[in-house]
């Protein structure tokens, strides 16, 4: 039986603060938006590019309506203008594009992804952003495992996109699932590509670990999710993802060490030490790549990527300043793309490096803008993670584990971008816009006008004061 005191000073206990239905629905929609970004390739494999495009554009329309209704506080001066510059240059490239139709379609996807990143950051406070990313990651982990399990138990063989069972054996590169879950081979999850599954699992492990460190509810279940994501990561067998995971771990250790600094200049020694470790590790990776990738079961040319880079650079050098026109990814049926670079009988639709891809499409100007976007993002996310939260004279406030997420995601994207073009679209670009804009709008977790406005107080979502 509940009991409370009748002392005149102490009133009856108040019920715990609960989130309103509206806020729960808002966060659920943000989770759906992030799921679309994380698992967009899986959606294309399931329903085809046209239907997937309709879903993506429809989701943007819904988000625009929600934005107009909720009217979250946004400081215009703190929007990610460098990212807008890259998007604007991509739009301008339609004027001279060698594949104008592809440029229009893919730019629309870029614009939607950029808007959705801004939408999630504007609608949710930091704690809810991390929670939404974690919820979306759970969906991707669960769907990938259940998809591979369903193929092994029900199909008993490879599966093509569109849930088509092939009538005869085909090149494994075209399969959505190779039915490898139970035989020990590499699995691809809902992505149909092990090199896309593995980085997504790194994202999942990072956000689950951050939530665990932040003492989120049901922490034992988070350990289970981490274990499942780690299992899928190992089964994906992506050599480049292993390197990316090692770099993320190095960045995490560096951040935690930096947080121990107590005196001015103390970080300088740590910066020098970790810079030497990074340079030394890079040298070992480069000069010992034959042995390293041999251990990982891969060739030192990263499965033919050097051939792809050479071909792309030769074409990109014909228009070194402005490029050939935006198209991320490439559209295989375009005359200049169809049959240009072929791998296992299939036309290649990316340069397997976001920097080489940006150079081909948008020239040196695009590469410069992209570099500025990432430099600004990495700079802000780094100090967001290593600086102690402070807005007055008190200098001993504890660090928040939530501040680790943007910089660790940034470390993953930097390494992934060396051998994949994925960071230029879907969840890679969305997270750069989302976290980059959020850090500028709310540089302190739970503190400041943007955070206070979006926080849950007295059970309702507060609007900005007039």
Largest sheet: 2 strands, antiparallel
Class of secondary structure makeup: mainly alpha
| Strand arrangement in the largest pleated sheet | 1-2
Name the overall outline.
Answer: globular
Radius of gyration (Å): 23 Å
The proportion of strand residues reads: under 5%
Terminal CA distance reads: 45 Å
> Number of helical segments?
16
Low-confidence stretches: 456-466
The secondary-structure element order is: HHHHHHHHHHHHEEHHHHEE
Write up what this structure looks like.
- The chain has 466 residues and is mainly α.
- Helix content is 61%, strand content 2%.
- It has 16 helices and 4 strands.
- Strands 1-2 form a two-stranded antiparallel ribbon.
- α1 crosses α15 (426-441), α4 (81-92) packs antiparallel against α5 (100-123) and α6 (126-155) packs across α8 (219-236).
- Mean pLDDT is 88; it is low at 456-466.
Q: Key features?
A:
disordered C terminus; two-stranded antiparallel ribbon; globular; 4 strands; mainly alpha; 466 residues; 16 helices
Could you give a short description of this structure?
With 466 residues, the chain is mostly helical. The protein has 16 helices and 4 strands.
Question: Which SSEs are present, and which pair or pack?
Answer:
Blueprint: H1 21-38, H2 40-47, H3 49-70, H4 81-92, H5 100-123, H6 126-155, H7 194-213, H8 219-236, H9 239-258, H10 266-287, H11 289-295, H12 305-316, E1 342-343, E2 346-347, H13 354-386, H14 404-419, H15 426-441, H16 449-454, E3 456-457, E4 460-461
Antiparallel strand pairs: 1-2, 3-4
Helix pairs in contact: 1-3, 1-5, 1-6, 1-15, 2-3, 3-5, 4-5, 4-13, 5-15, 6-7, 6-8, 7-8, 7-9, 7-14, 9-10, 9-14, 12-13, 13-14, 13-15, 14-15
